[in-house]
Write a structure and sequence with these properties.
Elements (H helix, E strand, L loop, with lengths): L1 H4 L2 E2 L10 E2 L6 H9 L4 H7 L5 H15 L10
Antiparallel strand pairs: 1-2
Helix pairs in contact: 2-4
Amino acid sequence: MEKLLSRITINPKICHGKPTIRGLRYPVENMLELMASGMTTEELLEDYPDLEKEDFLACLEYAAKLVSVKSIHRIAS
């Protein structure tokens, strides 16, 4: 698992510091949106030939880590 997460990098000089794949200009957010829209890994690999299957798995693992919190509290509006 940690090996996959090492593919996600944060650099303030790349994509305004958003998490990206391997320091490339592919924000994790964009890849997650594409996967959520229904694109398969095979389709993504065709559209982004410089990425690997493990990069997309790393995006999913990163998202899973972000949402694994003990509780969520509503902020007063």
